[in-house]
TrEMBL record:
The lineage of its organism: Eukaryota, Sar, Stramenopiles, Oomycota, Saprolegniomycetes. SUPFAM superfamilies: RNI-like. This is F-box domain-containing protein. It comes from Saprolegnia parasitica (strain CBS 223.65).
C-alpha cells in the first residue's frame, strides 16, 4: 500500500515564501487541492491583465480592477515586492491601498508639478510604506517653485529607503532644492548600509552654508557602500584643489573629472596647475580633482577638449605620480601631447583604460604607442578615434599583433577607412585577440565616444 504524504497548508505556504522567483514553478507542480488560499490568489493574479507579475515583483501602473485587487490582497501573505509606477497626476490612492505594506519601490517617471500640500500628502503616504526601499523621481515640466519636490524628497527620512534617483528630464532644465534636502541627504548617507544615489541636473542652494556643503561632500566621498552617479550637480561643480576651481562629475562609483563640458577656458591647464602644487607632507594626488583623503577611491578619468599646449609637459610628468589612475581619456590631442604621454605610460602602473583621439594620431605616433603598450602592465582597453594611418599601415606596425594578444577590448574609428578597410582590420584583430571585444565604428562616433561604454 502506497503512503501519500500531504504537507499542512502552513508548511506549504512557508515553502512558498522561501522560493521567491521559483514560486510559479512550485505552484504549477502543486495539485489544485494542495494550494492554500494565498496560492490560489497568486494563480489568479498571474492572469490579471492590469498588473505585471515577475515574481516576487508585481508592477502596478494604474488603479486596479476589483478582481485584481482581490487577488493581490489574497497573495499578500506571500510577501510580493510591489513596484508602483505613478501616472502623471500622481494618484495618491495607488500608495494608500490595502497592498501598501508590500510596496518596495515607487517610481514617478513623468512627474509633473503639484501643489505643496499635495507634495506633503504624497510624502506622508511614502513614509507610511513599511517596506519602501527605492524612490525614483523624474520631473518633466518646469515649475515656478520646486517646493513640492522638496516635500517629496523628505522621504529620505524613511528608515528603510536605500535607493534614491532624481533625474530632471527637461530640455535645458534643472531643479533647485533647499538646504533641508541637503541635511536629510547627509543623515541618509551617514547610515552604514548600502546606498544608491543618482542625481542629474540638480542644484542645491548652499552658497551661504559652506559648512553644510563640505559635510555633504564628505558624506558622499566617505560612505563605504555608496554607488553614486551625480551628473550636473552643483555639490561638486567648481570643486577647488589648491585654489584651482575644477568642474567635476561623479559617475557610478568612479571619480570622473568632466572637463569637456567646462565653460571656463583651458580647464586642462587649471587641472595641471592644481596637481602640480605641493601639499606639504600629504601623499601624491590620488584624485585629479582632490588630494588623497580616501585612497580606496581611485581616479579613473582625465579628459581634455583641445590641445594641452604648454601644460602637457607638466601634466604628463604628474600622471605617474597618481597611484590610483585607472583611465585616461584625451580628446583632440596633438602629436607632441601623445608623444609625451607614450614616454610615461610604462610608469602608470595601474592604468587599465586608454582612449585617445585627435590629429596627433599619426602613423609614427600610433606605431610608438603600440610598441610601448606591452610595457604597461595593467592596460587592457585601448580606444583610438580617427588615426591618420591607413588600415594597412596599422596592421603592418611592429606592435600591432603583440598588443592584440594582450588587450581585452579595442575600439577604433576612422572616417578615412572604407568598409573593406574596416572589415580587414576587424578580421585581423579577431584572429589574434584571445578573449576580447573589437569594435570598429562604421561612422565617426559622438563626442562622448568611449564614455558611454565605460560609464553607462
Amino acid at each position: 500500500m502506497q503512503t501519500v504524504v500531504v504537507l499542512s497548508p502552513d508548511l506549504v505556504e512557508l515553502v512558498a515564501l522561501f522560493l521567491s522567483d521559483d514560486l510559479p514553478a512550485f505552484v504549477a507542480a502543486l495539485a489544485p487541492w494542495g494550494r492554500t488560499p494565498a496560492l490560489d490568489a497568486f494563480v489568479r493574479l498571474q492572469h490579471c491583465a492590469d498588473v505585471t507579475v515577475a515574481w516576487p515583483r508585481v508592477t502596478i501602473h494604474h488603479a486596479l480592477a476589483i478582481a485584481t485587487s482581490d487577488a493581490l490582497r489574497g497573495a499578500l501573505s506571500l510577501r510580493p515586492a510591489i513596484e508602483v509606477v505613478m501616472p502623471r497626476d500622481g494618484d495618491l490612492a495607488l500608495v494608500v491601498a490595502p497592498y501598501a505594506r508590500c510596496i518596495t519601490r515607487v517610481r514617478f517617471p513623468r512627474l509633473h508639478p503639484m501643489t505643496t500640500m499635495d507634495g506633503y500628502a504624497m510624502r506622508n503616504a511614502l513614509l507610511a510604506l513599511p517596506r519602501l526601499r527605492s524612490l525614483e523621481l523624474a520631473p518633466q515640466q518646469f515649475a515656478p517653485s520646486d517646493t513640492y519636490l522638496d516635500a517629496l524628497l523628505e522621504t529620505l527620512e524613511h528608515d528603510h529607503l536605500t535607493s534614491l534617483q532624481l533625474h530632471v528630464d527637461m530640455p535645458r532644465g534643472e531643479v533647485f532644492l533647499d538646504r533641508r534636502f541637503a541635511i536629510n541627504l547627509v543623515r541618509w548617507l551617514q547610515r552604514p548600509s548600502r546606498r544608491c544615489l543618482s542625481l542629474r541636473s540638480v542644484r542645491v542652494r548652499l552658497d551661504d552654508d559652506p559648512m553644510l556643503l563640505q559635510t555633504l561632500r564628505e558624506a558622499i566621498q566617505s560612505h563605504p557602500r555608496l554607488s553614486a552617479q551625480l551628473v550636473h550637480v552643483d555639490i561638486f561643480d567648481e570643486y577647488v584643489l589648491h585654489g584651482e576651481q575644477l568642474p567635476q562629475v561623479f559617475q557610478a562609483q568612479r571619480w570622473a573629472s568632466s572637463l569637456v563640458a567646462s565653460l571656463e577656458p583651458r580647464p586642462i591647464d587649471r587641472m595641471a596647475r592644481a596637481i602640480a602644487k605641493p601639499m606639504g607632507d600629504a601623499p601624491a594626488c590620488g584624485y585629479l580633482v582632490e588630494a588623497v583623503d580616501a585612497p580606496a577611491r581611485p581616479t579613473f578619468l582625465v579628459t581634455s577638449h583641445g590641445t594641452l599646449q604648454d601644460m602637457s609637459s607638466r601634466l604628463t610628468q604628474m600622471l605617474p605620480t597618481l597611484p590610483w589612475l585607472r583611465l585616461l581619456l584625451l580628446h583632440k590631442s596633438t602629436g607632441d601631447d601623445i608623444a609625451r604621454l607614450v614616454d610615461v605610460l610604462p610608469r602608470c602602473q595601474r592604468l587599465s583604460h586608454l582612449v585617445l583621439s585627435g590629429p596627433g594620431l599619426t602613423p609614427t605616433v600610433v606605431a610608438a604607442l603600440l610598441r610601448r603598450l606591452p610595457q604597461c602592465p595593467s592596460t587592457r582597453w585601448l580606444g583610438l578615434q580617427n588615426p591618420t594611418c591607413s588600415s594597412r599601415e596599422l596592421m603592418a606596425m611592429d606592435g600591432w599583433r603583440h598588443c592584440l594578444r594582450r588587450l581585452e577590448h579595442m575600439e577604433l574609428s576612422s572616417s578615412q577607412w572604407s568598409f573593406r578597410d574596416k572589415a580587414a582590420v576587424l578580421n585581423d584583430a579577431q584572429r589574434h585577440m584571445k578573449a576580447a571585444t573589437v569594435v570598429i565604428h562604421v561612422s565617426p562616433p559622438s563626442s562622448r565616444w568611449g564614455l558611454d561604454r565605460l560609464f553607462p
